[in-house]
Structure formats: C-alpha cells, structure tokens
Amino acid sequence: MILLAVFLLWAKTHLAYHTAFSSMKIDNQMQAFILLINPFSFLLVIFGFALFLKGGGRNLYLFLCDLLLTVFLYANIVFYRFFNDFITLPLLFQSNNFGDLDASILSEMNPADLLYFADLPLWAYIFIKKPAFSLARPFSKLDRRVYCLITAAVIFFNLGLAETERPELLTRTFDREMLVKLIGPYNYALYDIYLQSKTTALRAMADGSELSEIENYVRVNKARPSDLFGAAKGKNVILISLESTQSFVIDNRVYGQEITPFLNDFIRESYYFDNFYHQTGQGKTSDAEFLIDNSLYPLGRGAVFFTHAGNEYRALPEILNEKGYFTAALHANNKSFWNRDIMYETLGYQRFYHMDDYEVTEENSVGWGLKDIPFFEQSIGHLKSMPQPFYAKLITLTNHHPFELDESDRLIEPYQSASKTLNQYFLTVRYEDEALKVFIEKLKEEGLYDNSVIIMYGDHYGISPNHNEAMGEYLGKEITPFENAQLQRVPLIIHIPGHKGKVISTVGGQIDLKPTILHLLGIETDDDIGFGQDLFSPERREFAVFRDGSVVTKDYLWTAGTCYDKESGEETEERYCAPFRERGAEELKYSDRIIYGDLLRFYAKDEKD
Ligand code: GP9
Ligand code: MN
C-alpha cells in the first residue's frame, strides 16, 4: 500500500514534469536521470511514517498525505502556468504578486487536470470500505529497517548526484528551477520553509533602536562629493556587469595579442579605476548587483538575493524612479536565477527583460545561454523602447565558467598552460571585449551614446586559486596570499560624455558605486544608509573590505591572517593593519545586522512620519 502511494505520487509528479513544467530545460542525460528519481527521496520518507501505523489509521494517513501533496503539486502547476516559476514562501507573502491572480487562476485550470486527482476515490474507497488487502499485518521491525535503509540510500544517492551535477547547490541556492530539477518540488518546499523560518526569527527579534548606532557610524563615514557632483545630471545610466572579468586582463596580452583591445581604447576616454575590488560572497553576480544598488555588503553565507528578498531597501532604482527615471534590468537568463524576478521588484526595477524577452536559439547560444554579441544587439531594441532618462543594467554571460566558446567566435590564439580554464578564459574575455565594441557602436548609431553615462564593472573573479600555478606562470610571479588578494581587483570604467580619460588609483570597491552614481547625477546622499563613499571624493578613505574580512588600504593589505606592505608585497607588523581590519569587521557586522534584522524598515518609517 505504501509503495503504491509512493508510486502514484511519483507518477503524478512526472506527469507534471512532462506537461505543466515542461519548459524546464533538461541539459543532459544526468539531469534527466535525477529528475526521474528525485520525487522518491521525499515521498519515501513521508509515506514511510505509515509503517508505524496500523490498519485503518494507516489508510487514513496515506489518504491524507496523498490529498495534501496532490493539492500542493497542483497549486504549483497552476502557479507555474501563470508565472513560469515555483511557489516560494516570500512570494506568497508578497501580496502584489497576486493582485490580478484571482481571475486568471481559473483560466489556468483545465479538465485534463482531473487526472491528478484520479486516485483519490481509490483511497477514499480503501479508507471507508476497508477491503481485506488494505488491512495487512503490521510491519515487522525488519520491514521497517529495510525500508529506512533503502530510503536513506535513495536520499543520499539523490543529493550526491545533485551535488556532482551542480556543486554547492544547497549552500548557495542560486537557481530555483535547478533546485526543483535536482531535488524535486517537495524537498524544495521543505528547504524553502527552513530558509524562511530562519529569516523570520532573526527579523522578529530586531527593533529600531539598533539602527541609531549604525546611523551614527554611517554619518561620520560620509565623504563630501567632488566637483563632478551633477556632471551627468539627467543623463541615462547604462550599467554593464562584466561577467567574471578581473583587472589583470586589462592592457595585457597573450603571446603579443591584446586580450581587451576595445576596452584598452575605451579606458583612454573614460575614468578608469585600477584599484577597484569586488566584494562578493557566495551570491556572485547577484551579490555584486546587491552591493551596487544598496551600498550594503552581501552576506557571508548564501545569496542575499534569495535569503532577504522580502526586506525593505532603499535601492538605487527606487531612488531613481522618484527622480523620474525609468529603471530596468536586462539579462538573457532564466528570470528566477538568483531569485532576480522577486528581488528586482523589491529593489524597485520597473522592468526586467529576461530570457523570454530575447530570441535565444541553439545557434546564438553557448555555455550558459545567449552569447554576449546577440545579447547586446537585441538589448538595443529594448533600450530604444524605454522612456528617457533610464537606468538600465545589462548583465553579460559568455565569460562565465567554464568559459565555453564556439570555434568561430575565437578571436585570438589560445594560451597554452596546464590550466584549460585559464586558457579558455582569455578567449572568452576577448569575445566579451568584442561584444562591448559592438554595443558601443550600436549605442552611437542609435544616438544613445552622447546622452548616457556608461559604467562597466567586473562582477567577481573568474579564475579561482585552484589555477594559481598557471596564473603564476602567466603573470610571471608566484601567487602568494597577497597576490591572490590583489587579483580580486575588477575593472571599473565610468564614461561620461565630453569628459577626458583619466586613471584613478584610489582604493575602492563595489560598495562605493551607489553614492558615486547618485552624485554624478546630482542627487544628494546625506540621508542614505550605506557604507560606500563617492569614488571621486577628494576626502574619501582609501579602503575596501572583502566579504571574507580581508582589507585593503592605500598602503597595507590584510588577508589570510597576515599584514602585508603593499609596496613590497612583503609581510609586515600586524599593528599596521589592525585599525583597518577592525573597521572592516565592524562594517560587515553593521551591514549584516541591517539585513538580518531588516532594519531599514524602521528607517523608512521614520522618514514617512
Ligand atoms: C546567471 C549569471 C551568472 O544569471 O548572472 O551567475 P554567477 O554564477 O556568475 O553568479
Ligand atoms: Mn558572475
């Protein structure tokens, strides 16, 4: 009986996978196999409790479980048909998502769906009529043990396969669709409940008084704007996230071939920051987005886009909306990746152009999806349709690990080292550079170039320390912890029409972009709670703290428990780094407190009063 119940729900789940959820992309045989088995791990556990029940009680339990799970599955099906996404708890609480759902809910149901409920009469019959076969003997200890053992094996097998298919899936929680694909809708719901309850508990314990200490810190920390305040007033802002792009490729070569020929030229007519660090954690691209829009640090664990999408923020798009800007994000990936569809609403983006807004085919895709050149070409159409001034964030994708590229897109001869990753990286960075060139040309053709500030930033590192040997060979020096920290520099390019090029070497990080952008647009930031400082400000501190607590200043670098003198790259006395290290730790702590306690909700209230 138990196995029958498990089998029936497994069958229903698969019916859903192949009909309602069929737009989920199955990338390979392995994923297809995981999909086949993933409902079992949960269903065996939940129905397994029936092992401890007898006769009628057991039947009732099986019937109720079947009913509840079917309703849950069906709710997800209807939801998916409408939103192309799975239900999550924060989403259920975001009532505006449901505003116009009532009327459409019926239209998303159809008679064939009755199939999902077809087994219920059978369970009802068994429960009421108690046919002899359903009242079999109670289970023996041995039965239970065997069942538990098999169940445990299935769970580990499923999780193991999921982990090999997508490492760090559960710790980083990046892609809802991928999670459902690999662990099934039921386990995903459990996981979601776990994340949500953790968040709710911390939030409930927080109160507004915590904010005043942080406010004081932030006030003292403010840096006066520079002469460039208002230099780009009323202009469009085009912000480009350069996937996995580190500074070491800029003005650098592979066997004499420039890696970023276009950017090297573009830098000469822009402000180029060559001591600018990424500050991301596990949330990678989304952490960089979070830093830039909020001037708050992402979290030490997990992706804040997923864990705290229901918080109150005072993000860049929200501020710009109030100043009459149209705000949009453009990224040709699945909209639920990094929970963007939900987080973007929270941050105030008026429009998210995602995968469905692009023409993505086999031919124009590679690796993670739409190639950067067609992405930029198609994005131009979207930009043209926007009311001006706009704030548009474009997120590139081709230069993403494992740096796959079609032969025909290869523009330089590959580097030859023992690290295939590094060798390919140069090729995809070169392609990305070409894509940027195409984009800028198109912006000029469409007349958007002269009335837009163009800001490009590297989102995070692309080459991990696993490739230090090949990296050392390329750079011609050993990659010590000091060098590794210096490799966390990512390019930041700010192009303002009519301004001459200039290299600015102040130490800064992604946290500093929000006040920098606002000041360029002539918007005051006095009341803003954020940890960054205008990168152009003459009185700024030269400082960047990484999410792991490493700290860089003008002269010193603290990383991996050691203080380094930046000029020599040699170890130096700890006391030189101590004050900055403490300051870094304090800032991260304050920022975490804001996020875990959802403290900006109190600030927002103050303002409205
Ligand atoms: C996915 C893209 C890449 O949409 O932003 O994410 P990453 O793995 O770099 O965070
Ligand atoms: Mn990225």
UniProtKB/TrEMBL annotation:
<feature type="binding site">
    <location>
        <position position="243"/>
    </location>
    <ligand>
        <name>Mn(2+)</name>
    </ligand>
</feature>
<feature type="active site">
    <location>
        <position position="285"/>
    </location>
</feature>
<feature type="binding site">
    <location>
        <position position="460"/>
    </location>
    <ligand>
        <name>Mn(2+)</name>
    </ligand>
</feature>
<feature type="transmembrane region" description="Helical">
    <location>
        <begin position="60"/>
        <end position="83"/>
    </location>
</feature>
<keyword id="KW-0479">Metal-binding</keyword>
<feature type="binding site">
    <location>
        <position position="285"/>
    </location>
    <ligand>
        <name>Mn(2+)</name>
    </ligand>
</feature>
<dbReference type="GO" id="GO:0016740">
    <property type="term" value="F:transferase activity"/>
</dbReference>
<keyword id="KW-1133">Transmembrane helix</keyword>
<feature type="binding site">
    <location>
        <position position="459"/>
    </location>
    <ligand>
        <name>Mn(2+)</name>
    </ligand>
</feature>
<dbReference type="GO" id="GO:0005886">
    <property type="term" value="C:plasma membrane"/>
</dbReference>
<dbReference type="InterPro" id="IPR000917">
    <property type="entry name" value="Sulfatase_N"/>
</dbReference>
<keyword id="KW-0808">Transferase</keyword>
<comment type="similarity">
    <text>Belongs to the LTA synthase family.</text>
</comment>
<protein>
    <submittedName>
        <fullName>Phosphoglycerol transferase and related protein, alkaline phosphatase superfamily</fullName>
    </submittedName>
</protein>
<dbReference type="GO" id="GO:0046872">
    <property type="term" value="F:metal ion binding"/>
</dbReference>
<keyword id="KW-0812">Transmembrane</keyword>
<dbReference type="Pfam" id="PF00884">
    <property type="entry name" value="Sulfatase"/>
</dbReference>
<dbReference type="InterPro" id="IPR012160">
    <property type="entry name" value="LtaS-like"/>
</dbReference>
<keyword id="KW-0472">Membrane</keyword>
<feature type="transmembrane region" description="Helical">
    <location>
        <begin position="32"/>
        <end position="53"/>
    </location>
</feature>
<dbReference type="InterPro" id="IPR050448">
    <property type="entry name" value="OpgB/LTA_synthase_biosynth"/>
</dbReference>
<keyword id="KW-1003">Cell membrane</keyword>
<feature type="binding site">
    <location>
        <position position="400"/>
    </location>
    <ligand>
        <name>substrate</name>
    </ligand>
</feature>
<feature type="domain" description="Sulfatase N-terminal">
    <location>
        <begin position="235"/>
        <end position="523"/>
    </location>
</feature>
<keyword id="KW-0464">Manganese</keyword>
<dbReference type="InterPro" id="IPR017850">
    <property type="entry name" value="Alkaline_phosphatase_core_sf"/>
</dbReference>
